[in-house]
Design a protein that fits this description.
alpha/beta
Length: about 325
């Protein structure tokens, strides 16, 4: 009897310890809800609240995708049910694993991938993006073999990151107790606000009056893709094929565009037999009605007036 009582006490203690650690982790993990410019937490918590197999189109990519692809516009214009899984600083590694995760719950017919991070963006980071951006994307992914594989890949490529800090986020965020806010304690309530389905509307009109759309005939140069990003782009293409999903590559207008990048992506898309819609390319830019000064929040992000102008091409 004594041994049984001892085991029961140990089990109860273990369960209580797990509950405490889980609660502390949930409170300490940073949160970005609809009251933030980039509501990453709302994006991912909201995705899990979508009814199974209720999404026809998935958007993936960096903040360019989050700000430029509005699911409500697609529904209002064409009745297409979509969800935007883009987020600030989303590398193609992150895009790949969130696509894998999404396929556990949804069966999209189309995936639209914004390709900003295909090329070298942050040469000082092994994953081509800031560690904080990677954390924001994976902190709210549910644990499954998908997340397990993702965090192992992350820590394999980026030796500054550790598996323990993903399994126990309090290791990474233990100093956040000094800056806790109300949102940290009402995350369940805040998670209910996902009406924008991942879209991050930006409300400034600060385009660049020096912006000039691309004319591909101007150059035959090709830019080199970041090797790791090319690897995960290939994996995204393969994953879509394996699941019978039509993949569309796209690029939102930005001042970082150039003909060599456009040519590289066009060549890749042609080799893979998939469409590539670059809204920096002059004919598409003009046809979509973009006006950089009016439709851009800044040099890289479409504002809420510009969001949706790309609908006609992506739908076509």
């Amino acid at each position: 009897m004594r041994h049984k009582r001892y085991l029961c006490n140990m089990f109860a203690f273990g369960m209580a310890a797990c509950l405490v650690v889980s609660t502390v982790n949930r409170i300490l993990i940073p949160k970005c809800y609809y009251d933030d410019s980039w509501p990453t937490t709302s994006t991912y918590q909201g995705f899990y609240q979508m009814e199974k197999d209720s999404v026809d189109v998935l958007f993936l990519g960096s903040s360019c995708a989050a700000a430029g692809l509005n699911p409500q516009e697609f529904y209002d214009s064409y009745g297409i049910r979509s969800y935007n899984l883009g987020c600030e600083g989303q590398s193609l590694l992150t895009s790949y694993y969130w696509l894998e995760e999404a396929l556990r719950f949804q069966s999209p017919k189309v995936v639209v991938l914004e390709v900003f991070f295909t090329f070298l963006y942050n040469r000082d980071e092994p994953l081509n993006t800031a560690e904080s951006s990677t954390r924001k994307a994976f902190d709210y992914m549910r644990w499954s073999p998908v997340k397990w594989e993702a965090v192992h890949d992350i820590c394999n490529y980026d030796k500054k990151q550790t598996l323990g800090s993903y399994y126990f986020p309090n290791i990474r965020y233990h100093t956040r107790w000094k800056e806790l806010e109300e949102n940290d304690f009402i995350s369940g309530e805040m998670a209910e606000h996902y009406e924008l389905k991942g879209y991050a509307p930006l409300a400034q009109r600060r385009g660049n009056d020096g912006y000039v759309p691309l004319s591909p005939a101007d150059s035959s140069d090709r830019a080199g893709m970041a090797p790791l990003m090319r690897e995960y782009l290939d994996r995204i293409v393969m994953l879509c094929r394996e699941n019978g999903i039509s993949l569309i590559l796209t690029k939102m207008p930005d001042t970082d565009c150039n003909v060599s990048k456009y040519n590289t992506m066009s060549d890749y898309a042609q080799e893979q037999g998939i469409p590539y819609w670059d809204f920096n390319e002059e004919s598409l830019y003009r046809a979509s009605g973009f006006v950089h000064m009016e439709d851009m929040n800044d040099d890289w992000h479409v504002n809420l007036w510009g969001g949706g102008r790309e609908n006609f091409a992506l739908y076509r």
